[in-house]
Design goal:
Helices cover 25% and strands 17% of the residues. The longest helix is centred in the middle third of the chain and has 11 residues. It is globular.
Length: 264
C-alpha cells in the first residue's frame, strides 16, 4: 500500500490550498494503542501511509485513505480487530464521558451524541433521566438522521476519522442549530518534528487539525470556537453562548509513554 511520492496537486480539504508537503510516513498497522501498551498490536506490516501538511492552514491528512470508500474503511480499519487499536472505544470512554456530560446538562435539554458508535454514551445519559439519542452515520450507515435540532451535540473522537471535514462540520452546525456542540480531537502541536502518536493509520486517524485549520473550518460554517484543552473544543452560534458554559475539565485520551522507535 506504499504511497507514491506525491499526488499533484494536493488540495487541502480545509482551505483549498494546493501546496501540501510530506510530513510523515507511518506503517499502516501502527495504532495509537501501540504507544500506550509499548508493543505492536498488529504483527503484519502492510506498507506505509503518507501524511501531508497544508502550508496554508496546517491541516494534516492522509491523501490515499481520504480516497477510500466506506466499504474499504470497514474492511481494512473498522473491522473485528479494531478494538486492538482503541480499547476504550467500547466501554470505558463513552461511560466516562457520559458521566462528564451529565454534570452540566440542564433539565429539559435535548442531547445528541454524534458518531456515538454502539450508542453507550446516550444510553448511559438516558439511565439518569437525560433526553439523549445517538446517531452514527459511519458506524451504521443504514440508520436515519434524527429529526429536529438539539440543545447539545457531542462528538467525541470522530473528527479525525472523517475525510470530508467541511461536510462534517456543516452537519454538526445544522444539528446544533441554536445550541452548542462539544467535540474532541487532539490538535497537533504547533511545532512538530518526527513522529506523532495520534497520527496512527490503523485507528483511522486520517484528518488531523492544527489550531489554525480548526478555527478556519468553524468560521466557514458560521460557528464560534473555544478550546477547553488541546483535545476538547466547543462550538456555538455566538461567543456568548460559549461564555455562559461552566464546563469541568475532562481528559479524553491521556498521553502515551512509549515511542515509535521502540515498537518497530
Amino acid at each position: 500500500m506504499h504511497m507514491h511520492e506525491r499526488a499533484s496537486p494536493l488540495s487541502c480539504p480545509i482551505c483549498r490550498a494546493a501546496d501540501a508537503r510530506e510530513v510523515l510516513r507511518k506503517e499502516f498497522n501502527i495504532s495509537c494503542n501501540c504507544y500506550f501498551e509499548g508493543r505492536r498490536q498488529y504483527p503484519t506490516n502492510e506498507g506505509s501511509v503518507l501524511y501531508v501538511e497544508c502550508q496554508g492552514c496546517g491541516f494534516w491528512w492522509a491523501p490515499e485513505l481520504h480516497g477510500w470508500s466506506p466499504q474499504t474503511f470497514k474492511r481494512r480499519i473498522y473491522n473485528e480487530e479494531y478494538r486492538l487499536a482503541d480499547p476504550p472505544f467500547v466501554f470505558e470512554r463513552p461511560t466516562r464521558l457520559a458521566a462528564w456530560v451529565a454534570r452540566f446538562v440542564r433539565p429539559g435539554m435535548r442531547v445528541l451524541d454524534y458518531g456515538g458508535g454502539e450508542g453507550l454514551l446516550a444510553r448511559t445519559l438516558r439511565e439518569v433521566g437525560i433526553d439523549a439519542v445517538s446517531w452514527d452515520p459511519f458506524y451504521d450507515d443504514a440508520s436515519e438522521k434524527p429529526a429536529g435540532s438539539f440543545d447539545l451535540v457531542t462528538c467525541f473522537e470522530v473528527v479525525e476519522h472523517v475525510p470530508d471535514q467541511r461536510r462534517l462540520f456543516f452537519e454538526l452546525a445544522s444539528l446544533s442549530r441554536g445550541g452548542v456542540c462539544i467535540f474532541s480531537t487532539l490538535v497537533r502541536p504547533e511545532r512538530h518534528e518526527g513522529d506523532w502518536w495520534y497520527a496512527s493509520p490503523r485507528n483511522g486517524h486520517i484528518s488531523l487539525h492544527s489550531a489554525n485549520s480548526m478555527r478556519r473550518v468553524c468560521e466557514d460554517v458560521g460557528l464560534a470556537l473555544r478550546d477547553l484543552s488541546s483535545e476538547v473544543h466547543v462550538m456555538a452560534r455566538t461567543p456568548s453562548q460559549i461564555a455562559q458554559l461552566d464546563l469541568p475539565y475532562v481528559m479524553v485520551n491521556g498521553t502515551p509513554e512509549h515511542r515509535l522507535d521502540g515498537l518497530l
